[in-house]
Specification:
alpha/beta; five-stranded parallel β-sheet; three-stranded mixed β-sheet; globular
Length: 179
């Protein structure tokens, strides 16, 4: 009961701007990892951001100073040197994969783990900066697939969406699509 209260309190601070996106996330999340909203995550110094997307997604853009830990090939070895009480924010495109990785972190004994509500898509939607592999600001974002890319609302001039997912034919490998 106390654990459910903790998660529900934490969820109340996590918001996304699009009501349809909010409804989709509500059905997607299992609420097994405490959520943190974009505003709270950006305003709290000391969080270690862990990117739970695949390398092809990370190299297009990621949150500045985020460490890539992956999803399909996640290994606890990638966490060497991170104290178990370190404040951690795990993210992926929308928050599903990062919730799964967050569950693993909690099972490994990490005690201060949060899932970024809405993922890097909501970070980007709220016009927060992302950087490329050279640590330079970019307007490119990996949309995972056309299906998931619909949740990227920030379609300002110059924003480039990249679609690539190796397991399906709905994507265009390595080919950016300008929206």
């Amino acid at each position: 009961m106390a654990l459910g209260f903790l998660f529900s309190c934490n969820n109340s601070r996590a918001q996304v701007q699009n009501p349809a996106y909010r409804a989709m996330l509500k059905g997607l999340y299992k609420n097994t990892v405490p959520l943190i909203g974009v505003k709270q995550a950006q305003n709290t110094a000391g969080y270690l951001f862990l990117d739970a997307r695949e390398w092809k997604e990370y190299e297009v853009s990621h949150i500045e100073n985020a460490l890539w830990i992956g999803y399909d090939h996640f290994s606890p070895d990638n966490l060497a040197g991170i104290p178990p009480d370190a404040p951690i924010v795990v993210y992926c495109s929308v928050g599903y994969r990062s919730e799964r990785i967050g569950e693993q972190l909690l099972a490994l004994g990490y005690t201060n783990v949060h899932n970024l509500y809405g993922g890097i898509f909501e970070w980007f939607n709220q016009q927060q900066p992302v950087v490329n592999n050279n640590n330079r600001p970019t307007l490119r974002i990996h949309a995972y697939s056309k299906t998931w890319g619909i949740w990227l609302a920030n379609k300002a001039q110059g924003v480039r969406l990249t679609f690539y997912h190796p397991c399906c034919c709905c994507c265009l490998p390595g080919r950016p699509i300008i929206s």
